[in-house]
Amino acid sequence: MSSGGAQLSMMRQVLAERAEARLSDAALRLLVEQAAEVLLLVDVTGRVLVFNAEAGRQFRIAAPSRVEQGELPGCVWVRAEDGATPLDVSPLTRALAGEPVFEERWGLRRPDGTVVVLRGGVFPVSPEGGLAPEGVFLRAREEVPARLDATRAATLLAEAGALLGAELDAEARLEPLLRLMVPTLADAGVFFLGPAGEAVRAAAAVHAEPARHVAMVEMLHRYPPDAADARGLPSMALSGRTERVACLTQAQQEDVARDEEHARLLLLLGLTSYLGVPLVARGRVLGALALFRTEGAPGFGEDDEQLAEELARRVALSLDNARLLSEAREAVRLRDEFLGIASHELKTPLTPLHLKVQLLQKQVEVLAAHGKPVSAERVSETLEVVQRQVRKLTSLVDNLLDVSRITAGRLKLELEEMDLASVAAEILYRFAPAAAQHHCSLEMHAPVPVLGRWDRLRLEQVVTNLLSNALKYGAGQPVRLTVEAEGRTARLIVEDGGIGISAQDLPRIFERFERAVSDRHYGGLGLGLYITRQIVEAFGGSVTATSEVGRGSTFVLELPRGDIPEEWLSVTEPLA
Ligand code: ADP
């Protein structure tokens, strides 16, 4: 190689080495700057060479150019124990005099008067290996005091109690509650609502650091809790047990993340310790409280666990009370609405009854005044109306009595052998006039007897309820009744082609007082199907409905045939 060529290659090497040195310098500077510890390098003349971000945060001053007599501008080294007495000699001065200062605690009064306790060391630095140091290097971190003494815990519980007693929507209290716990008990917290295995949602979240709070809210928004993917959920707490991880590692957090972005957001939060406690009230898990601590804070201990559990118990009770209150209010609302409907329904038959009787009375008076007898035809016509309306009233009152019987658990069944097909046929026959009135045709399909042991009156009541609904809501379309058997199960199906029931209303029509139609268009107490279901369930059977709005409804009754002889199962001829 020519000497020119050798020079060129040397120059390239030197340049490469310089670039490398610059890179590693820059990396070192970055490392120092971003370290979670206070890092400070001072030369023997007092010139400050390194003063990282954490130093600025702890000393609460901008990077100073000099240290005078071991003191930073505006700051005073004080005793860690009382925070008022200045130290005789600053740790920096001691190190500058050549004495290494190993792991000690000092207090530092900052320019704003607050005192922070630092734990760390100061080391003389001699790059040339000489005895006299050329500078000193201080590294320290804030010593976070044990978070909760008994007084603070009691205060926290008292404040939480006051908040839980406030006239607020129960869920609206969750965030203020977290704000009480953060940062006294934890650096971040999330309330998850919904028990394990069901839809879980994050109802409130708070992080002590504003930037991290934003990241946490974003993370919960972008990665909402997913019961199907338990990662990232306080699963153990949601299934009713407390979980405490004193030291939460980065790997553990990466493990629960659903993808890289999730992991990135999670790691941004700086979580280092985790405590998950269940929200349990009256033996039911309502959700979980997840608490976290971040870098520099001690891991959660047993005391923290006890306090968090106590808080969670109170929160759960208040959530449950709120639920009960709203259910009770809803029940009262429904009852009031029902009373309105019931009075209206009871009054409806009374009006024609009253008018007919009044009319007859007038006629009797007029005829009597003229000395004429009342025609038997007229009396009988009035009595027919009276009887019809009295029947209606009786049935309404019977329904009300049934409900109170069911509520009190006094529904008694008197079982006897019978043929469901005959019972159904008889009722269908009774419905002929009503069907004509509703312009509905009635069809029956019951090819063979279906024998079983049931309570006749209650069975009749059930079939009557289903048939009268089919006519009432049947919009003049044919109504079809089918009776069949499948082994030890008897089945009765009532189909109509009427107004139908929306999918949204379908689940509630069997509940007490529930109606899916307006009372302006259709009378009724909303009790028929409730009573039907109660009776059917008392028989050990079930009643279900399928429907399509505008196309009609199908009600299927399935009843166990009870304790009947084997040979009855295949009877194909009507009973004698
Ligand atoms: P109601 O006295 O209101 O008829 P029910 O308990 O018998 O009370 O029925 C509850 C509600 O279910 C009714 O208000 C109606 O909205 C709906 N429903 C019941 N049967 C039918 C049907 N065959 N077709 C359409 N809707 C029905």
Explain what you see.
By secondary structure, the protein is of the alpha+beta class. It folds into four domains: 35-142, Beta-Lactamase (2-Layer Sandwich), CATH 3.30.450; 150-327, GAF domain (Beta-Lactamase, 2-Layer Sandwich); 334-408, Helix Hairpins (Orthogonal Bundle); 416-570, Heat Shock Protein 90 (2-Layer Sandwich). 43% of the residues lie in helices and 22% in strands. The protein is built from 15 helices and 18 strands. The chain has helices at residues 3-34, 53-59, 91-96, 150-165, 174-181, 210-222, 235-238, 250-256, 260-268, 302-369, 376-407, 420-430, 432-437, 456-472, 528-538, and strands at 38-43, 48-51, 76-78, 101-109, 115-125, 135-142, 188-193, 201-207, 243-245, 271-281, 284-294, 415-419, 442-445, 451-455, 479-486, 489-496, 542-548, 552-560. The strands form four sheets. It has a six-stranded antiparallel beta sheet with strand order 2-1-6-5-4-3. The protein has a five-stranded antiparallel beta sheet with strand order 8-7-11-10-9, with helices on both faces. Strands 13-15-16-18-17 form a five-stranded mixed beta sheet, covered by helices on one side. Helix 6 (210-222) runs antiparallel to helix 9. It binds adenosine-5'-diphosphate.
